Amino acid sequence: MKTSRRGFLQLGAMGSAALTLGSGVAMLTGCAQQQTPAPGFKTLREGDIYFLGTLAPAILTTKGYPGALGPDARQRLLEALDNIMTTLQGHALKQLQMAFDLMGSPVTRVAVGAPLHPWEEATVEEAEAFLESWRNSWLPIKRMGYAGLTKLVKMCWYSQPENYALSGYPGPPVKVPFPYPSVSK
What we know:
- By secondary structure, the protein is an all-alpha fold.
- About 55% of the residues lie in helices and about 0% in strands.
- The protein has a domain at about 40-160.
- The protein has 7 helices and no strands.
- The model has no long low-confidence stretch (mean pLDDT about 80).
């Protein structure tokens, strides 16, 4: 394919126009806002809390959610997720937050097959349908996103001491003090 100078300049102009339009839409929809962590959290933002709080019951339906934690289950899971996210390196944290931003923006949420309305209004059935569509997608990126989200949520769920028994984990080893003989001269 032969490219002329004129064609190259036209392509550059169209690319610039597309980027300008995209950034304008992002600013108008609130995507470009610098978000701060929600009160009581170090890294999770308000939209992340709604997104993860809606997906947790769908991911953990057969895993005893809310189980022994009862009414504290959602808050404890979100705190565990927040703690795990604080251990991520800068680039990994930014990538994860970009994925959460993708799910928080109305424009991109529709494009990836999520419910049309905000996550705080989504039902468990809608969250299950969303996860099912990502798990069975022909796009590898969606399948990887599904695997990453479910592993993250399950890891944080089973890190709660009250949930150890659900996975057959007896708990961390207990150090038994050994009586050392006294050394006398």
